[in-house]
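Ops channel
N.P.: pipeline sanity check, posting one input/output pair.
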């Protein structure tokens, strides 16, 4: 299953295989993935490689990891388009603890105490004297565009 001569990093191959299993319905939203030790045996790789693969899937928003419990498949959130106007900057970064709490849904607050770990945010900096916006990367698709036209349906900064 793992092709060491492919040029694709091993952790990416493991992440791709797990993602394929999720997409195929082997693991439904809310289902727990096998433990790191079990995944390590399944793919015949080290646990560090499995951890990297799980971190990659967390960053994509495919799974969330709860310390001492494991990794759970998340439902694919509906993404909204957010148009970043010309001249604005967008920075991808990890959220602060306060942002994790403020950007969490009510169910995430109940279950995890905030937004799941490993989900980056986009910080939109529109320009001088304008307020910055913080957006969850798993809920928003950024579209970099020229100034808005009358028919644009996405939010804008």
């Amino acid at each position: 299953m793992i092709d060491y001569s492919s040029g694709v990093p091993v952790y990416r191959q493991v992440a791709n295989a797990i993602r394929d299993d999720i997409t195929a319905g082997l693991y439904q939203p809310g289902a727990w993935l096998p433990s790191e030790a079990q995944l390590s045996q399944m793919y015949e790789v080290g646990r560090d490689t499995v951890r990297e693969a799980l971190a990659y899937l967390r960053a994509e928003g495919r799974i969330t990891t709860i310390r001492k419990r494991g990794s759970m498949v998340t439902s694919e959130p509906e993404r909204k388009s957010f148009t970043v106007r010309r001249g604005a900057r967008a920075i991808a970064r990890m959220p602060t603890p306060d942002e994790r709490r403020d950007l969490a849904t009510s169910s995430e607050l109940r279950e995890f105490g905030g937004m799941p770990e490993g989900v980056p945010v986009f910080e939109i900096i529109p320009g001088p004297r304008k307020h910055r916006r913080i957006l969850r990367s798993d809920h928003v698709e950024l579209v970099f565009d020229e100034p808005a036209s009358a028919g644009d349906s996405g939010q804008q900064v």
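N.P.: looks fine end to end. The CA atoms of residues 124 and 133 lie 5 Å apart.
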